[in-house]
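Researcher: Last one for today. Full complex below.
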Amino acid sequence: MDTYQCKVCKLEYTDEKIAKECEVWCSTHESCNYLIAQQAINKNAAKDLSITDDERFKE
Ligand SMILES: [Zn+2]
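Model: Here's the assembly. Have a good evening.
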C-alpha cells in the first residue's frame, strides 16, 4: 500500500489529499492540525498538535 508523507512533520497518510492538507497546514502553522494528524498512520509521532477546531476555520 502506498503511503504519502508530509514533508514537514513526517506523518504518513494513506490518502495523498490529506497528506497535502497536512503539508499545507504544517508549512503555515507551527504545529500539526489535530484533525488532520489523527488520520495519520503514524499519528503517535505527531507532536505539538493544535487541538482547537476553530483555528482551522479562521483562515
Ligand atoms: Zn504535517
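Residues 5 and 12 are 4 Å apart (CA to CA). DSSP finds three helices and four strands in the chain.
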